Amino acid sequence: MSYTPMMQQYLEMKGRCPGALLMFRLGDFYELFFEDAEIAARELEITLTGRDAGGGRRVPMCGVPHHAVEGYIATLVERGYKVALCDQMEDPALAKGLVRREITRIVTPGTLLEGRSREEKDQRLIGAALPIPEGWSVAFVDVSTGDRWAGVARSPEEILDDGMRYRPAEWLVPEETARSSWVDRLTKITGATTTVIAEGEARLAIDDRPARGDLPEPGGEAALDAVMAYIQETQRRRLVHWKPVQPLHDTTYMVVDAFARRNLELSETVREGRRKGSLLWLLDETVTAMGGRLLRRWLDRPLVDPGRIARRQDAVEELVNDWMRRDRIREHLRRIYDLERLLGRVSYGNAGPRDLRAVAQSLHRVPMLADDVSGLRSEALKAIWRQLDPCGELRDLLDRGLADDPPATPKEAGIIRDGFSEELDRLRRASREGREWIADLERRERERTGIKSLKIGYNRVFGYYIEVTKANLPHVPDDYERRQTLASGERYVTPALKEVESQILDAQDRSEALEYQLFVELRNAVVGALPRLQRLAAALAELDVFAALAEVAVKRQYTRPVVDDSLVIDIRAGRHPVVEAVLSEGTFVPNDTFLDGETCRVALITGPNMAGKSTYMRQVALIVLLAQMGSFVPALQARIGVIDRLFTRIGAADDLVAGQSTFMVEMVELAAILRNATPRSLIILDEIGRGTSTYDGMSIAQAAVEFIHDPRRVGARTLFATHYHELTGLAERLRGVRNFSTDVKEGGEGIIFLHRLVDRPADRSYGIHVARLAGLPDDLLERAEEILQALEEVRSGTAQAAAGNMEAEAATAEADLRRTAPPVGGGAGAPGKEAGQPGSPYVPHPIVERLRRARVLDMTPIQALQELYELHLLAREEERR
Q1: CB distance 603 to 718 below 8 Å
Q2: Which pLDDT belongs to residue 823?
Q3: SS3 for 119?
Q4: Phi, psi values for residue 541, rounded to 5°
Q5: How sure is the predictor about 380, in pLDDT bands with cuts at 50, 70 and 90?
Q6: What is the phi-psi region of residue 509: left when phi exceeds 0, alpha when psi lies from -120 to 50, beta otherwise?
Q7: pLDDT digits over 574-612, tens only?
Q8: Which residues pair with 411 in a beta bridge?
Q9: Is 76 exposed, middle or buried (0-12, 13-18, 19+ CB in 10 A)?
Q10: Helix 353-373 and helix 530-556: axis angle, to 10°?
């Protein structure tokens, strides 16, 4: 069929951006057609209409006002769509024929600069993962702030871990890996949109590679080039606000993997995925968006250098001890806008007049901040003071050039202050005088014609006009020229009115053009100062974080920990920061912790459910993490020997996305821990082995303790909570294992959880008591008591039977040896004394000796089974010989 020229132009533009909703500029609206219109009308809840497309065909259409388009774009993108904007590239009034249009940008989840629901303190990143010989090239970029990270992942599991840490809104993956199962899992776990890129799209133009700069972690070039090329392709402009690339994996930071971040609820809760209830929620007393984003990065990447940690602690301590100065600093910071994102919009070219005014207002606060920071003694705060550059010449230029309350968009009048440009002042004066002349003309024409209802008006179609009602038409002078007939009267013009109108409109057009030109010059001046402004923004963010950590320390009564290179973790009266905050004041029960690399390498913790084992272990991990990020900690005092990696396995969270059971997830996480932990790591394990049969679970749990305890294999400091009371015997034969339990008080009505850690194993699990607290029926609980008693008798009998069987087997084996073993120095059947006796010619068998010496009556069932299994292996080895 034959489409209209405009519709043909639309279809051509639509073909250039497959997969995106096309917003097509028509006058004051952005219109969508065909299926795009149906989608947009449904998602935006706007009216779906139609338009003649030519050949008698009417197609679906909907539209949004151009001045409000950003909000509509944000809604569509946040619901998973990509949006392409097709703009008019020339003035329709001056165009000859069809207005020239081009796609000016494509907005995707990773390039959305303004979102209605996005948190100011959250980053919106684009991530990319491309295969390279060394593994995978991985990069993350924040278009709004210019932050970039790049490096190498050795496996898809490492990519998943990076994805959980950086949480991009959009992933770029090459065609050859787009259908991989790990890519599907990656997008589902991180909640990101996946964009498939062709081989050619993953290469940055040679001319643009200087913007990439040198990478501190080689191997990330491919992914970073892909992201930068994608940004250029979608944004259709060159951005200049990029910061130096940071390494994706930096050995100067503690490694906190995805499992640990999830289990410890560092930035969001496990159950609801909400910020409230997380450690970040508790710590975030920042008053700027820049500080909030930096605080999250510090939380995600704690330090491992005691010197750098102490440098941060010195700054926090100084602000803790000077509350008046801290309050003044925070009050100044509250009045500073998000400079990082303002500079991103300036670089992008879409910063408006109010954005520049916000930059100027922020710069006005810098000298006052510098006065309050000056004189502080800590090295970190002195370094911040040196970076508090007020950019005085830029601030003064913006003050001279911008009106106090400029309009929102650069195409509106009133941006530039009077007196900044003589030419603009002259044009404004001409326009103003013309309007005053027209206002006076209305008065004079009323007097001349006697028509008291006569009025002068204006519209964009007819310009200025004189309007007369029908009742007064006989009084219209002969020099009035009819312009338009209305139902209620007529509109006229006069030669003098047309002449003044021409002068006014000419002055307005020239004034608007000059004002926009002057605004662009001011914006370019900000672009020229970008490096200085970015350094200032970084200093302000760091100052905000230090002040926020000091505020938390004072409000929550935290103390400064000692952080050193030892292997000691010694915490006195430690508290869980988040649980303490949500409980009534004074109700949280603090606990001590001591771990080292020798006498207490593994703390084996037993006790009933609900007694606080998991809370206690999370508490230790969070205190260590807080200490190494430079914060004070919730404890009476603490000494933390730096850890290089933090591992946790707490709770059951089935990985339904990957189709893995609770036990499989547990084993995968445990394997990752055992593979990557070092003697400097901290491992938190809760109820390992409970997802399978009892004996399988006990065996795995015991083997895991032994493996971790062994300094030749792992040797890491470990908190290991278990319901397998049989494991408590490990403390007797493994020097670095110690038993602890959560204390319980028994009474006539049941048990009371004291939430206090004691230096002894639990004597029972109290499972039925917990069930009673949960409200299970009394007759059910009575039956459970009977079954429990029977099972305990069976287990006791099993242990004794196993011991008896082992003794019997030892006696039988020894008797067999007596009958068959040849005498020493003689042939078969030679007479001699019994083997093992003084002067005996027989040699005792190693298995017999091990059985003889085994203290079987002192063994737990699991220890007896383990001993029997090892003897079985020895016997098979004998057979092979």
Answers
A1: yes
A2: 46
A3: coil
A4: -65, -45
A5: very high
A6: alpha
A7: 999 999 999 988 889 999 999 998 899 999 999 887 788
A8: none
A9: buried
A10: 60
745/753 Cα distance (integer angstroms): 7
Average pLDDT, the chain: 86
Contacts of 557 (CB under 8 A, 6+ apart): 634
Whole-number Å distance between alpha carbons of 312 and 550: 11
Q: Which two tokens stand for residue 595?
A: 């771990």
pLDDT at residue 654 is higher than 50: no
In the chain, the amino acid numbered 31 is E
Q: Name the residue with tokens 């102490």.
A: 310
The distance of Cα 183 from the centroid of its chain, to the nearest Å, equals: 19
Q: How many C-beta neighbours within 10 Å does residue 669 have?
A: 23
Give CA angle at 134 (133, 137), nearest 5°. Answer: 95
**Two tokens at 117?**
């629901």
Q: Which two tokens stand for residue 741?
A: 């339990």
What is the mean pLDDT of the segment spanning 118-147?
89
Structure tokens belonging to residue 822? 């040849």
Alpha helices in 677-739 (DSSP H): 694-709, 730-733
* Sign, CA torsion 574/579/585/587: negative
Closest alpha carbon to 546 in 732, 340, 325: 325
Q: Give me the pLDDT at residue 764, please.
A: 67
Handedness of CA 254, 260, 264, 267 (dihedral sign): positive
Tell me what pLDDT residue 449 has.
94
Residues 183-193: pLDDT tens digits? Answer: 888 888 788 88
**Model confidence pLDDT, tens digit, residues 799-835:** 555 445 545 554 554 555 455 444 444 443 334 344 4
Q: Dig out the tokens for 565 from the structure.
A: 């290179």
Q: What is the dihedral of CA 868, 874, 880, 881, to 10 degrees?
A: -150
Sequence length of the chain is 881
Would you state the pLDDT for residue 831? Answer: 40
Q: What angle do CA 795, 739, 639 make, to 5 degrees?
A: 160
Q: What is the pLDDT of residue 271?
A: 83
Alpha carbons 179 and 189: distance in angstroms, whole number: 16
| Residue from 634, 556, 596, 573 nearest 756 by CA | 573
pLDDT of 796 reads 61
Contacts of residue 215, defined as CB under 8 A and 6 or more positions apart, other chains included, come to 150, 151, 221, 224, 245, 247
